[in-house]
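User: Quick sanity check before I run a bigger batch. Here is a single chain. Can you write out its predicted 3D structure?
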Amino acid sequence: MRSKKASVGWALILGVLVIAGRFAAAQMPSPALLVVNKEGNLAIVDPKSGKVMGRVPTGDGPHEVAVSDDGRLAFVSNYGAKTPGSSISVIDIVEQKEIRRIEIGALSQPHGVTFAGGKLYFTAQGFKMIGRYDPVADKIDWMMGTGQNRTHMVILTKDLNQIFTSNIGSNTVTAMERSFDPPDWNETVIPVGKGPEGIDLSPDGKEVWTAHGADGGVSIIDVATGKVKETLDLHTKRSNRLVFTPDGKMVLVSDLGTGELVVLDAPSRKEIKRIKLGAGCAGTLVAPDGSRAYVAVTPDNNVAVIDLKKWEVVARLSTGVSPDGMAWAERK
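Assistant: Done. Predicted structure follows.
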């Protein structure tokens, strides 16, 4: 029989643990920089101090991350390392733990993830399709095939009526437009350069830019017509990611082959400069206020922080082994 003193002792311990858990949650930064490390975890970073405030294990070979609108949940695509992955980790950022794992299917290779309209859109490269996950119902409620090889990244327009995917193996971008008659979505396959991977929508919603990893070019697609209206030759070795700054004035292209970040003036389509970051750079994120860019220098195991007024590296963050995809989380 447990003594009264022992019971009191256990009660005190449990109380301390509960308080400690609440205190740890309260100490989580907001905003937070989320960094996927391909070694198998998600790092939660305080962007002000640069410190890693938490680390959550994921599935095998994670690559990309998206965040729910309330800034509480992170969705990490487990692309796979030596073998193709098949799941997406759902992580409670505040509690710092994986709360569920969405199984997509064997050899599905989920990669690109975007949260929009309360739901998660993801690519399943191995299945040549994209899907949509409803976190409230905890189920995949919609899927659409692309018929293209290595459907890798996915973006949506703000009204959710158009979806674009970059298809590395088919040298195309798939444009999906919502139809209010069956089959609900119409698809257009847009030929672009070789190996399109990085892709982004201009803040005004008028253009989609995609960087070609195999030929060093960038295709600029007119959203209204669904056609390439201009192609730029950047002479990159292996373009990986492409992102607009929030004001739409600049475009950043990371080159995994040279370790350079290429800075373009969006209106004039002219190159402004190249910033050498290391052996190779991949995942790229611009802070919502447009003050800084974060670029994963994957081979060197750090994230470069770039001041977008000075266009200089102002810090290096040690987030883990092989950093890649990133997202910004702010609790609301």
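The CA atoms of residues 23 and 196 lie 45 Å apart.

User: Great, the batch can go ahead then.
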